[in-house]
Every structure is written in C-alpha cells, then in structure tokens.
Amino acid sequence: MLKIDNISLRALEYSDLELLYEWENNTKIWEVSNTIVPFSKNILSKYLENQSQDIFTSKQLRLIIEFKKNPIGTIELFDYDPLNNRAGIGIWIIDSKREKGHAKKSLLLLINYSFKHLKLNQLYCNISSNNKNSIKLFSKLGFVLSGTKKQWNRTQNGWQDELLFQKFCD
Questions:
Q1: 80 SS3 class
Q2: 14 three-state secondary structure
Q3: CB-based burial of residue 72 (10 Å sphere; 0-12 exposed, 13-18 middle, 19+ buried)?
Q4: How far apart are CA 16 and CA 22, in angstroms?
Q5: Hey, which bits of 49-116 come out as E strands?
Q6: With the CA atoms of 129, 21, 78 and 159 taken in that order, what torsion angle do they form, in degrees rounded to the nearest 10?
Q7: Percent of the chain scored above 70 by pLDDT?
Q8: What is the pLDDT, as a whole number, of residue 50?
C-alpha cells in the first residue's frame, strides 16, 4: 500500500465489486473513460480476477484511492510499455471529494512509485481540452503539454480536442 497523510492507494479486492459496479456504470463519467455500454457484475468479477496479474503481465495497474480508509476513487497506470519505460496515468475521484487535494496526493504517490520502483522514464496523460481542473492539476505536478489531438473524442456536445501531457523522470 502506498500512503501519504490520510490518502492511501491499495490494490483492488474482490470486496470492491459493488463499488466498481456503481462507479463503472455511472454515465456521468463515461465521457472521461470512453465508455459507451454498462458493465455487468460478471464482467467486473472477471476483471477483478485478472487483477492478480502484475503490471508486467497485464500492462495495467489500477488502485483504489482511500481517504481515511474510505474509498473515494481510482488511479491507474495503463499501456505500460517496459521497452520504452513509459505508461499512461489516469485518475478519477468522486464528486464530493474533489478539490480537496486528494487527487494531487494520490498522483504524487503514483508518480513517485512509477519513477522510483518501476524505473519509468516518462508518464503521460490524455485530458479533454475542456477539463480545466485536470489540466491545472497535471500542470502543477510537472506534466507538460506535448500536443493536441484535434476533434479526438465525440461527446454529447460535439467533437472535443484531447491534450497530451508528459512528465519525464527527473
């Protein structure tokens, strides 16, 4: 478990099934996660079974963010590429716990883990151009805008650009 102050990042457990079912089927966040269909408990149960694989096998590491031992979101590394020593990073926190510093602390924990323990050279994230809070957060943590993918994601309000941010190991 990774921990700083009242924030901890822990591995997914089978007991998280109901929580994941609720979060993954929340249509309000589908646009961020590029989801267009609901997840069944059966599919999520199989996903949890595969979480026993390490990042080197599954190329992904998803963790639960806890504040004072209560789950408040997820954070993950995805598209882990050991040849080029890079991975994507993403985070989601429930509405009631946003803008309280929890995302910043969680990201700092995973960034530190990624560079020091996984020996990654870089992390990257993809952020919708209208997600001002995420742009501000990742920029404060040293991620630099590297490019814009024009009309990358179709949303309910039309096409949206997606920004690519990168952070290199110091």
A1: strand
A2: helix
A3: buried
A4: 10
A5: 61-67, 70-81, 86-93
A6: -20
A7: 95
A8: 73
pLDDT score for 169: 93
Question: What residue has token string 């997606």?
Answer: 162
As a dihedral over the C-alpha atoms of residue 117, residue 120, residue 124, residue 125, rounded to 10 degrees, the angle is -20
**Residue 139, SS3?**
helix
**What is this structure's pTM?**
0.88
141-167: pLDDT as tens digits: 999 999 999 999 888 888 999 999 999
Amino acid at 77: L
Output DSSP code: residue 39: P
Q: What is the pLDDT of residue 14?
A: 86
Q: 53 is written with which tokens?
A: 């694989």
- Tokens 């009309």 belong to 151
